[in-house]
Amino acid sequence: MRTRGLTKRFGHQTAVDGIDLTVPTGAVFGFLGPNGSGKTTTIRMLLGLVTPTAGSVELLGEPMPLRAGRALPRVGALVEGPAFHPYLSGRDNLVRLDAADRTTERGTAARRIDGALDRVGLLPAAGKRYRAYSLGMRQRLAIAAALLTPKDLMVLDEPTNGLDPQGTREVRTLIGSLAEDGTTVLVSSHLLAEVEQVCTHLGVMHVGRLVAQGTAAELRGDREVEASIETDRPETAAAVLRELGLADVRVVRRRAVGRLAGVAPERVVSACVQGGLAVTGFAVDAPTLEDVFVSLTGEGFDVSG
Ligand SMILES: Nc1ncnc2c1ncn2[C@@H]1O[C@H](COP(=O)(O)OP(=O)(O)OP(=O)(O)O)[C@@H](O)[C@H]1O
């Protein structure tokens, strides 16, 4: 899935500003950004629910909206969430939704529905009324509804919004199992911590712009990783670090600290030992993604929820 220069203006306001989004096949792509940064508008354009002001979308290799008929049936989405009937069971809700889909075969409905319920782990609770479901179960039922027919791409807009930690874990586990089955997943969130663990790739929106995208490792960037050596002669250690090619080398109390800048961490220790230093401590610290995003956007994510 990819976009080129995708733009949406509402009057004078540019909600999405020329973004080039690339979601590799098989990825779990975390689409991150604070509320109002343009994630939902982007997702609505991807799904053909909103017409872009400019730019293009390619969905499952098909140009949109030209080949929408080919791509969209293979794309499942959780954007607004389907309307479920509170007094019907989870299964009966899916029976209703499935019956409304004229493209599917009647004879295989029961198998399709139980398959979808099983996929989201709701088979044991399939006979319970929807109103008795927890928020996490409701969200999983919505995903089951999207899975009634096989999907190559699932687009989930803030699927953990309003969920308690248990519900969040349920949805995260489900995203992981979708990915294991080979489904590409695009999941948006304003909470980095909720999706970070399950994502192979991340994209960060900030005021309508995509300020970064790539794997977590790419976003962190090797050069940001710092090594620190603790010794009784930190000034000597600092000289060794500089000699090795570390950047921004400085002494902090009993430690010499510097950015690795591509130098292998194990070389730092061996060089210090060979230099006759008594190394009493060694640490390599990558900045958290939170740090990276704060530096990209000048704003923190709402990590607490
Ligand atoms: N139909 C619309 N008409 C006018 N402005 C809109 C419309 N839809 C969205 N916007 C504006 O576009 C900007 C981006 O909104 P969008 O919903 O895409 O952000 P978001 O990152 O998904 O945030 P949230 O998580 O709150 O949905 C916001 O400033 C919003 O007010």
From TrEMBL:
Coiled-coil region(s): none
Key words, A-Z: ATP-binding, Nucleotide-binding, Transport
SUPFAM superfamilies in the record: P-loop containing nucleoside triphosphate hydrolases
Pfam families: ABC_tran
Keyword NAD: no
GO molecular function, one term: ATP binding
Domain ABC transporter per the UniProt entry, residue ranges: 1-232
InterPro entries: AAA+_ATPase, ABC_transporter-like_ATP-bd, ABC_transporter-like_CS, P-loop_NTPase
Superkingdom of source: Bacteria
SMART domains: AAA
PANTHER family, per database record: ABC TRANSPORTER, ATP-BINDING PROTEIN
Family: Belongs to the ABC transporter superfamily.
Protein name (record): ABC-2 type transport system ATP-binding protein
Organism: Nocardioides panaciterrulae
Lineage: Bacteria, Bacillati, Actinomycetota, Actinomycetes, Propionibacteriales
